[in-house]
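Q: Structure for this?
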Amino acid sequence: GAGVSQSPSNKVTEKGKDVELRCDPISGHTALYWYRQRLGQGLEFLIYFQGNSAPDKSGLPSDRFSAERTGESVSTLTIQRTQQEDSAVYLCASRLDRAANSPLHFGNGTRLTVT
Amino acid sequence: AQSVTQPDIHITVSEGASLELRCNYSYGATPYLFWYVQSPGQGLQLLLKYFSGDTLVQGIKGFEAEFKRSQSSFNLRKPSVHWSDAAEYFCAVGGFGNEKLTFGTGTRLTIIP
């Protein structure tokens, strides 16, 4: 079966522009996560969706960042007025359910470069 | 607050030699522990996980890890590395009722002939 799919794989944008990143989770996975990975650093939690519950937005670094997910399907991460410090790989992951011992399945990420 | 420390940023090992990657965690309850591997340009792939029971867990690609509660450690080992093991390795911690995984900063593994 298909894994987690992210698009685009690479995105170069000018400072100040808005960008939208897309994640298609594994079918049937109720939980979806966004992480940010800056060069040479670990994964930084951004936001978590679980079914129809209110998302956990505690990791979003500023109000320029937002994410949506409709039901248990596609999610989009939007960054408004991009800054150079937003340059990173944005990873999406899904898991079957909310159980903490259910492993995360990651996409290949979107590499965002802000010039 | 939960945290993960991977003290080695970069490790170089000869092909065929043994490997141990260190991971120390801080978690207020019984931890769920994971090791992930990330090849260049790829997402993270789960190598192995520990939830309970036997403290020595086996994973894919010949990797194993041992949970030591007294040392708050979950070190990853492999008896003989292959050139294809060159990648970035991440340790992560979570727990019952805690849906967010916290990741370490990763250890980059280089294999030399």
